[in-house]
Hints:
Elements: H1 2-8, H2 19-26, E1 37-41, H3 47-56, E2 59-64, H4 67-80, E3 86-90, E4 103-109, H5 117-125, E5 128-141, H6 148-157, E6 162-163, H7 164-173, E7 177-183, H8 187-207, H9 212-231, E8 235-243
Helix pairs in contact: 2-3, 8-9
Amino acid sequence: xxxxxxxxxxxxxxxxxxxxxxxxxxxxxxxxxxxxxxxxxxxxxxxxxxxxxxxxxxxxxxxxxxxxxxxxxxxxxxxxxxxxxxxxxxxxxxxxxxxxxxxxxxxxxxxxxxxxxxxxxxxxxxxxxxxxxxxxxxxxxxxxxxxxxxxxxxxxxxxxxxxxxxxxxxxxxxxxxxxxxxxxxxxxxxxxxxxxxxxxxxxxxxxxxxxxxxxxxxxxxxxxxxxxxxxxxxxxxxxxxxxxxxx
Length: 247
């Protein structure tokens, strides 16, 4: 856990994304209220939470299991002038205990994999008002026959990795309609996520040069960066934007 903190604390994002991608996905929703009620699941340090607050003038509940991320979000939101719109809640996405039919929009960037794509879509649907929207980003295969080294790596890291086509089927199977979406640009992996991460890994390799176990973890982290550098055309994060049917 200490190494995890050193690897992630203070980074701009905890997954691929950008303000532009957040706003593009938001633009695929329709007829949101003037002040929508929004649930941001697995919000991390909240780059997207702040963008949503600015763009919607909504009331946002931001959920994460790591208090330090919520503390970072609070400071960033205060600096951005949107803190009154945001309530942070330290709770697992498996135990949110929120009222049914209470949100106009559920958002989750790079976090639904924790629940599993199908399981997360199914579980969170009850929190949406009829006609409410859901936008999530999910790692997906972009080609039918991805490279062997990529499939082997992600079989260990995320066995639930599916193709875009299969994930679209899951969206329908879990009761959503009007699905839309897009592939997040490869640059959105680097600018605020992988590039700062590589800098952090390099520094930690120096710090832990005499610790073989820690170095092995850091090498595995670097392996993820190198793999995407080689195969960015084979897999990526995809935004899925869809809604719960109205009666």
